Amino acid sequence: MTGNDLSGFGEINALLGRGTEFEGKLTFVGRVRIEGKVRGEIFGDDVLILGEGAEIDAEIEVGTLIVRGGTLRGNVRAAQLIEVHAPSRVFGNLSAPQLLIDKGALFEGQCTMAQPSGPARLSLAPQ
């Protein structure tokens, strides 16, 4: 992992760090990591990473969502993948072709997995 790689997915285009608060509609391109508070809507075609300090109350539509910690309240639609890692807390409905929920993560809601071509894949971390 390089000095610029905060996500494991390459360079971050934007970072909303701890202590940052945003309310409204956030749209982005590239990889974005949030460690602060966001309330509203989040849209992007690429990767959104929620870090340990994240407190999100938003409707989210992205390419890929990776929840590495913090709390997410709201519904999520991802075009490719949603990952929820411990010690994350997710309250809301999830929709994506692929889903990974790590042991120790909290998820309360419903999950819809649909993929236009081929079967959907569900991955639960081994216990």
SSE order and pairing:
Blueprint: E1 14-16, E2 21-28, E3 32-34, E4 37-44, E5 47-50, E6 55-67, E7 71-73, E8 76-84, E9 89-91, E10 94-95, E11 98-101, E12 106-108, E13 111-112, E14 121-124
Parallel strand pairs: 1-3, 2-4, 3-5, 4-6, 5-6, 6-7, 6-8, 7-9, 8-10, 8-11, 9-12, 10-13, 11-14
Structure description:
With 127 residues, the protein is mostly beta strands. The chain has one domain (14-115, 120-124). It has no helices and 14 strands. Strands 1, 2, 3, 4, 5, 6, 7, 8, 9, 10, 11, 12, 13 and 14 form a 14-stranded parallel beta sheet that branches. The two termini are 27 Å apart.
> Compute the gyration radius: what is it?
14 Å
Terminal CA distance reads 27 Å
The number of distinct helices, counting runs of at least 4 residues, comes to: 0
The outline comes out as globular
